[in-house]
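Are you able to produce any protein sequence you like plus the matching backbone structure tokens because I've never seen that pairing?
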Amino acid sequence: MKSFRIVLGAVLVLCLVVPAAVNAAEPETQWRQRLSSGDEVAQSDITEEVRFGREVAARIIGRYGLYDNAGLNRYVNLMGNVLTMSTNRPELEFHFAILNTDEINAYAAPGGYIFVTRGALLKMRDEAELAGVLAHEIGHVVEKHVVRELNIQGSEDSSAYSAASNLARVIGGSTDAARAAFTQAIDQAMDILFKNGYKREDETQADRDSVMFCAMSGYDPTGLLHYFERIKSAKGKQTEVLDKTHPSYEARMAWLNETITKEGLDTGNYKDFKDRFTEAVKQLK
């Protein structure tokens, strides 16, 4: 985890990546208000979300390892943090990293830990496609899909805890039962990411959020759509987890197009930064 923290702790020079502002059919402030609930969250809940997410992130890293390229990891972090500026979760510090696998996928752990695989990057053609994938994962974090599914929350209540709630007591507990409960909750989160998938409505919401986060950041909101069009024909081990845990590409492409049309997004006004992306990933293997 030390190298992970070093990479993700790099100073972000946002001026290098922030796209030019683009006028949209609807004011950005109204878009932002609709992107997630904006509910006030107790500090104890935020602390447990981040702590829980850090453990899930460690499991993901343990599964694949990190891709050792400081420049490319910094580039992905710059892009990701630009996208997070359009969210309404300023209490989180987002972190981005590349997983060293040729599998085609991306993952989000609660608390703001976002991963994209080396295999996924190799399938992308421009920065808008990468932005679309990262923004989808950011959507899962912003909407607290795993947090709500597993009822992850902090608590100062002294009452008994369940296997997937009141993790402040679970993590701090010294009994075998406490440790078992915490492990069970982590296992459930990993099952969502690698076996069972998110609820269909959660995937729909994350895809729709992706369109809006990209548009507000100046990226072509059709990036994720173009990415799906390319990888939907890929079959085999590279897409095994992705195909198993997500709705069909046809369904996802339909609701992406629906969101673009509904929001009145003139995709010709946005950027894909293809040359910049090509330069950044040219050493990727």
Summary: DSSP finds 14 helices and three strands in the chain.
